[in-house]
Amino acid sequence: MAGLATPGAVILIYHRVAEIPRDPQLLCVRRRHFGEQLEVLREHYHPMSLLELVGAVRDRKLPKRAVVVTFDDGYADNLVDARPLLADHGVCATVFVVGGDGGPAREFWWDELERLLLETETLPRALRMTVGADAWHWQLGESAWYRPEQSERDRGWNVQQPDNPGPRQEMYRALHERLRTLPLPQRRKVMDSLQAWSGAERVVRPTHRSLATDEIRELADGGLVEIGAHTLTHPVLATLPTDAQQLEIERNKAHLEQILDRPVRSFSYPYGTRSDYSVETVKLVRRGGFACACANFAGVVRSDADSFELPRVLVRDWDGDEFARRLRQAWGNG
User: Fold this and answer.
1) Residue 8 near residue 301, CB atoms below 8 Å
2) What is the predicted pLDDT for the residue at 331?
3) Is 47 helix (H, G, I), strand (E, B) or coil?
4) CATH class of the domain defined by 2-104+209-333
5) CB 29 within 8 A of CB 317
6) Hey, where are the domains in the chain?
């Protein structure tokens, strides 16, 4: 294939290496599949670090079949499950970490939403609430009690499926879409209201926690994994005024540099599609002391790439054969 024979690179986006009961956003790759994917990279491609790639773009010395592994968000399983497999296969990675001074005191909001609506066995039969400027009303009816057989039946549901098996999934889909663009104070207010309405205990599940401070240091030890910045609160940056964007970017960078005692050189735009950040966002990142920034639209990195809008290919829970096919396809589409 011509694409594979031409110098260039594909940057891969992962989020989690884990096997959990529900994964409505399709963020998880199972350990077995991640190992198979890394084996494909070692046998057929040229794995390199993100900063090595940026240097190769700058110097117009891109290798052929280059691949970079990145993770967004900073889940604890990046250390516990992903890093040992990366070490076993000799593949380096960049992990873009969300957070600031508060630490991982609660789950990411999308995980809280899944826990409250899709994991809580018994909920009130109706929900009335204001989300942003909108007044919303749902009737759960018989789905207020999630019978074990129904819960088990719906475990494989995800947002890429066109239909909702019940009102709980309808609520989850609608609230997720609306919450992602809300300012942090409004989003927290909605989540706190949902928590109180559900009657569920507020917990951080061990399977869904993010990296603690000492784990960020541990993940970065040895040089196999580079830590990158991913904002304080994972907002849609394009919805924020310039000063709020700058705060999200600069405070996250400074916090991570304090933890690591070294510069943080790479950045990833939360959500990362072209509508999730702006021209002004890119300017802020360029001026913020970073060497590069990753987005979330598909493409192959060529020698003329903009190092502050690097395309990436999203990876799902594919076995090795399907991953190899998808990777060939990504190159063909580049």
Assistant:
1) yes
2) 87
3) strand
4) alpha beta
5) yes
6) 2-104+209-333, 109-198
Instruction: Give the span between the Cα atoms of 243 and 183, in whole angstroms.
Output: 14
Can you point out the beta strands (E) in the chain? 9-14, 16-17, 28-29, 46-47, 66-73, 93-97, 126-131, 134-139, 225-229, 266-268, 292-294, 313-314
Distance in angstroms (rounded) separating the CA atoms of residues 66 and 58 = 15
Token code pair at residue 316:
């799902």
> Is the pTM here over 0.85, yes or no?
yes
8-state DSSP, 210: B
Going from the C-alpha of 224 to that of each of 63, 131, 159, 219, the distances in angstroms are 20, 42, 33, 8
Strand 93-97 to 16-17 pairing: unpaired
- Cβ-contact 117, 166 below 8 angstroms: no
Cα 300 from Cα 310, distance rounded (Å): 9
For residue 124, give both structure tokens. Answer: 């009130």
Please count the CA atoms within 13 angstroms of the CA of 184 that sit on its side-chain side: 11
Farthest CA pair distance, the chain: 63
Contact 116, 194 (CB under 8 A): yes
Q: What are the tokens at 7?
A: 């110098």
Identify the weakest region by mean pLDDT among 103-112, 166-175, 248-257: 103-112
pLDDT grade for 104, boundaries at 50, 70 and 90? low
User: What average pLDDT does the chain have?
Assistant: 94
pLDDT in tens, 197-247: 999 998 999 999 999 999 999 999 999 999 999 999 999 999 999 999 999
Low-confidence winner among 128-132, 313-317, 322-326 (lowest mean pLDDT) = 128-132
